[in-house]
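Retro notes (design track)

What went well: tokenization of the new backbones is finally stable.
What didn't: we kept losing track of which sequence belonged to which structure.
Fix going forward: every design gets posted as structure first, then sequence, in one message. First example under the new rule, 123 residues:
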């Protein structure tokens, strides 16, 4: 049975939605559904390295990955988690964005511990 966490999308129905989908080894899913505005707020705070965009920020800023193929498997969960954890939640624009950031980190960290996959879908 799938576990759907929709509290970060509730009230924004009809607007763009981003889903982080953790797939367990048994096939069950945990789906973190968030309003695209929270996701954009978080992603805008990634900074390029000296060699340019890296990790999920690379895919976000050049509009590939989940923009082209949905759902899209996050290729390196450790790198993605490190990226999200590097952000300062106090600099985010929306009051709920830090909570969303924490929920994304928690989902990815759990997937890493259990050797599971995480996908991103844009709806």
């Amino acid at each position: 049975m799938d576990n759907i966490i929709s509290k970060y999308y509730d009230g924004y129905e009809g607007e763009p939605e981003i889903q982080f989908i953790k797939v367990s080894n048994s096939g069950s899913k945990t789906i973190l559904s968030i309003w695209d505005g929270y996701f954009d707020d978080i992603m805008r705070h990634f900074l390029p390295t000296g060699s340019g965009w890296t990790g999920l920020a690379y895919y976000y800023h050049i509009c590939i990955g989940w923009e082209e193929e949905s759902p899209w498997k996050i290729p390196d969960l450790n790198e993605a988690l490190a990226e999200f954890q590097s952000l300062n939640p106090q600099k985010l624009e929306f009051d709920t964005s830090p909570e969303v950031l924490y929920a994304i980190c928690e989902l990815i960290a759990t997937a890493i511990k259990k050797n599971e996959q995480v996908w991103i879908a844009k709806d």
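Added context from the reviewer: The first strand starts at residue 3 and ends at 8.
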